[in-house]
Design goal:
The complex is a heterodimer of chains A (about 550) and B (about 260). Chain A has 3 domains: about 5-100, no CATH class; about 195-305, PDZ domain (Pdz3 Domain, Roll), CATH 2.30.42; about 305-545, 2-enoyl-CoA Hydratase, Chain A, domain 1 (Alpha-Beta Complex). Chain A is built from 17 helices and 18 strands. Chain A has helices at about 5-30, 40-50, 60-70, 75-100, 110-125, 135-150, 155-165, 180-190, 235-240, 250-255, 295-305, 335-340, 345-360, 375-385, 445-455, 520-530, 535-545, and strands at about 175, 195-200, 205-210, 225-230, 270-275, 280-290, 315-320, 325, 365-370, 390-400, 400, 405-410, 420-425, 435-440, 460-465, 475-480, 485-490, 515. In chain A, the strands form 6 sheets. Chain A has a 6-stranded mixed sheet with strand order 7-8-9-14-15-18, with helices on both faces. A 3-stranded antiparallel sheet of chain A has the order 1-17-16. In chain A, strands 4-5-6 form a 3-stranded antiparallel sheet. In chain A, α1 (about 5-30) packs parallel to α3 (about 60-70), α1 runs antiparallel to α4 and α7 packs across α8 (about 180-190). The longest helix of chain A is centred in the first third of the chain and has 27 residues, at about 5-30. Chain A is globular. The relative contact order of chain A is 0.10. Chain B is mainly α. Chain B has one domain (about 1-260). Helix content of chain B is about 75%, strand content about 5%. Chain B has helices at about 1-15, 15-40, 50-55, 55-65, 65-80, 85-90, 95-130, 135-145, 145-165, 165-190, 200-210, 235-260; strands spanning about 210-215, 225-230. A two-stranded antiparallel sheet of chain B has the order 1-2. In chain B, α7 (about 95-130) packs antiparallel against α12 and α9 (about 145-165) packs antiparallel against α11 (about 200-210). The relative contact order of chain B is 0.15. Classes of the chains: A alpha/beta (about 550), B mainly alpha (about 260). The interface of A and B includes residues 53, 395 and 422 of A.
Chain lengths: ~550, ~260
């Protein structure tokens, strides 16, 4: 039973006793003003409803309030005392009613889903482009939401929303709930920890990474090839995982990179794992479950792969004699600039800083946007202006909007129509140097924009294990009672009028890597054994060529 | 009862305080509406509809003073100079005295609030036009629906008036109560689960507020459009209507029962 409801019941019982005693006093004093005391239970009920809302299971408590209220209308002492006894009894009856009822404080996840779904259907800007079948999604997910409502499963509700969002293959479509709920959802869906993470190398083999020391006795260590998991291939085990994000990737190439990572959470108290031992023989061992949080091991592994240059946001660092690094953690500078969208001061400071470094010998630039979760397009434009060749360059097109009808204007094929272009003028402060942009799957939104805009220049190379996320439309949020749904609701167009960056039904974004760094044994050694920033070191070598 | 109603209306015509409050509320609303349109360059933000969709809820806070002022002056104002006592002594029934005042309070409160809600948009429309943000129909519906929480607020203030017997105290308790509840809500981080129909000032705010989201173009402040939902949320109306009428009836019954046995001192 909830804390406030317990307090409410106690308060009602105490008031019943108090009013029982006051009935005698009021009988002797006979003043109209004392009658007002019998209105206090109503105020108490209102106060607790303000804090915690109402619930059908508290009906007895509300009836107790109504019973005590009757004392206001009568001045008979015995009648009032009987009312107090009845009210106290009703208040006490509330407790078993709440404790043994299935519907006590039951969250209505279904109502939330229906409301947010209908709003999402109106707002989402890539329904046709991504071939979204809203009716099919509704028919599929509504019964599932009814199930989690019936089971009072808050974590299940979160997992279900994440599965729903994954259907869009859009990095901008996601569900935000309480952090503790999201953590629990990850733990539940990713399964048990058996002491290793399985991941696919560039040569197609599935290997063990981030291996627990206890597995040495079984003959499994870093880079041991895993051939089977729980009686299945690693791909099959990966598919069996309940983790909703395994297919959420906007770009199918990024999904391919992470294929196999969910396999090592699948299983019961033990799991049979097939692997190639050091002597070349194929072995199968039964691994015990270490604990139920594969999510922690996987997160640690992925964080290592996605590490970025350790510097503050939008600051230059000297990488070597002729290379500097501009680290961009997010497309955000300060509160004033972000609210006014005026990045003149930021641009001026960056320009001064870079020119100073240039005087000290800096020639080339690494822009590290790994893990950059986006923000303002104004920053993208400011950065692009600094380093783009002189002259006017294209950024993106804005679609036509009907101010009266309040929707985008589309042509006869239901496609967006170009209204106006956003362009920018390059200043080329680099003046002959080379630029490498480091990206990963978590470079999303405005980071996608920067990659797309800068990659049009000859001196820019985009490099990473994976492409950037591939999600670049404008976002809005739909609030619900148990979380918020974020989705792409503002369209941005490419030069030809198609959707800017985002992948369509083919799951291929319009971004690609100039250098796709193979995730091989050398990369693993560097990242996990030497604790190096492998991509950054490769970028430095590339600039020397 | 007709005589009591007539006498109350006559008294109110002579009452400067009510007039000042009514004028003050409307001046604030009109000023906010006009300034909003005057200070914008954006064609989309020009006109009464944008004002209603965005800032009208601020004006609604001032409009909430009207039920307290009307109920306080009509129901509590006559205790000070013993008019209530003389009415009873001259042969009027307590029921006539009570319900006569209730009728005047509720009707006048609803009319004054409706006029206050309509006046500022009408004046802004006359100068800047209606605009495109929300439809006229949606606003008219909201004005009509808002009569329910206004009636509930007025009945509650009438109850307070007959108990406290001071118009100033009624207004202070009413507005102080709103501030206190709002503070508790902010401290507990949200509505705390209080649903439609329980707290009239919040219901009133919900009715006059428009939910919205924005759609925007790239790096161009002229390409930002706020989209407002014209329809009232469907789950608001039924509980709002039922609970507003139920609580209004309860306040009237409790108020009458108190007044019936009160010594009017």
């Amino acid at each position: 039973m909830e804390y406030y409801d317990i307090l409410f019941v106690i308060a009602l019982a105490a008031l019943s006793v108090f009013l029982w005693k006051m009935a005698d006093h009021c009988d002797r004093v006979k003043s109209a003003k004392w009658k007002l005391l019998w209105l206090t239970p109503a105020f108490v009920a209102f106060f607790f409803m303000l804090l915690n809302g109402y619930d059908i299971c508290l009906l007895c408590a509300y009836a107790a309030v109504g019973v005590l209220l009757l004392g206001f209308f009568s001045e008979n002492k015995r009648f009032r005392q009987r009312l107090s006894i009845a009210a106290a009894g009703l208040a006490v009856l509330t407790v078993p009613l709440c404790l043994f009822s299935d519907v006590y404080r039951r969250a209505d996840y279904t109502a939330d889903f229906e409301e947010m779904f209908s709003e999402a259907k109106k707002r989402y800007v890539m329904t046709k482009y991504k071939n979204i079948d809203w009716d099919k999604l509704y028919a599929e997910y509504l019964p599932k939401f009814k199930e989690v409502t019936k089971n009072r499963d808050e974590v299940g509700n979160c997992i279900l929303w994440e599965s729903f969002c994954a259907e869009f293959h859009d990095g901008h479509v996601n569900f935000a709930a309480k952090e503790s709920v999201i953590d629990e959802a990850d733990e539940r869906s990713l399964g048990n920890d058996y002491g290793l993470v399985t991941m696919k190398l560039s040569d197609g083999r599935f290997v063990a990474l981030n291996v627990d020391d206890s597995l040495k006795s079984y003959g499994i260590h870093q880079l041991t090839e895993i051939t089977s998991w729980d009686g299945m291939t690693v791909e099959e085990a990966h598919e069996k995982s309940e983790y909703p994000f395994k297919h959420a990737y906007a770009d199918i190439d990024n999904e391919e990179f992470y294929l196999g990572t969910c396999a090592a959470g699948v299983g019961g108290d033990t799991v049979k794992v097939g692997f190639i031992a050091d002597d070349g023989s194929e072995k199968t061992v039964e691994l015990p479950k270490l604990d139920s949080t594969y999510s922690k091991r996987l997160k640690k592994t992925v964080d290592k792969i996605n590490r970025s240059y350790p510097a503050a946001n939008l600051t230059f660092s000297v990488a070597d004699d002729d290379t500097v690094c501009l680290r961009m953690c997010a497309m955000s500078y300060d509160a004033d600039s972000d609210s006014s969208e005026d990045y003149g001061l930021m641009k001026g400071k960056l320009k001064r800083d870079f020119l100073e470094l240039k005087e000290s010998g800096a020639r080339d630039l690494i822009i590290d946007i790994r893990g950059n979760n986006g923000g303002s397009g104004g920053i993208v434009q400011a950065i692009a202006e600094l380093f783009a060749p002189e002259g006017e360059h294209f950024y993106a097109n804005n679609p036509k909007w009907d101010v009266m009808e309040k929707r985008y204007i589309k042509d006869e094929n239901d496609d967006y129509i170009i209204d106006c272009a956003t362009t920018f003028k390059g200043e080329d402060i680099l003046d002959g140097g080379k630029i490498i942009i480091l990206v990963n799957n978590k470079s999303v939104s405005a980071a996608d924009h920067l990659t797309k805009v800068m990659s049009q220049f000859d001196n820019v190379t985009v490099m990473g294990f994976t492409e950037p996320n591939g999600s670049a439309q404008g976002v809005s949020a739909i609030g619900g009672n148990y979380g918020a749904l974020y989705l792409s609701s503002s369209a941005i167009l490419d030069e030809d009028g198609g959707i800017f960056v985002d992948s369509g039904a083919d799951r291929q974004s319009s971004q690609s890597l100039d250098i796709k760094v193979p995730f091989d044994e050398e990369a693993v050694h560097s990242l996990f054994d030497e604790d190096e920033d492998y991509l950054f070191e490769l970028a430095l070598k590339e600039l020397k060529k | 009862m007709k005589n009591i109603i007539r006498s109350q209306l006559y008294q109110l015509k002579k009452n400067r305080l009510l007039f000042i409050i009514f004028i003050g509320v409307n001046v604030v609303s009109i000023a906010v509406g006009m300034m909003m349109s005057a200070m914008t360059d954006n064609e989309y933000e020009l006109g009464a509809s944008y004002f209603i969709a965005t800032l009208f809820s601020i004006c609604a806070v001032f409009i909430e003073v009207i039920p307290a002022a009307v109920a306080g002056l009509v129901c509590a104002g006559d205790f000070k100079d013993k008019t209530s006592n003389y009415e009873i002594m001259s042969g009027s029934l307590r029921a006539e005295a009570y319900f006569g005042r209730i009728v005047v309070s509720v009707v006048l409160s609803v009319i004054m609030c409706a006029v206050s809600m309509a006046l500022s948009p009408i004046i802004v429309t006359a100068v800047y036009g209606w605009g495109t943000s929300v439809t006229v129909e949606s606003f008219v519906i909201r004005v009509l629906v808002s009569t329910l929480p206004i009636i509930k607020m007025t009945c509650f203030c009438c109850l307070l008036s007959f108990v406290i017997k001071s118009s100033a105290a009624v207004m202070a308790v009413h507005m102080g109560g709103i501030i206190l509840v709002t503070t508790i809500i902010n401290m507990t981080g949200g509505m705390g689960g209080l649903t439609e129909g329980f707290f009239a000032p919040f219901d009133f705010m919900k009715v006059v507020s428009y939910s919205s989201y924005s759609t925007y173009g790239l790096n161009n402040e002229d390409l930002v459009w706020m989209l407002f939902r014209n329809e009232l949320p469907s789950r608001l109306l039924a509980p709002l209507a039922a609970l507003s009428l139920l609580f209004s009836a309860a306040y009237i019954i409790i108020g009458y029962h108190y007044y019936h046995k009160d010594d009017l001192s």
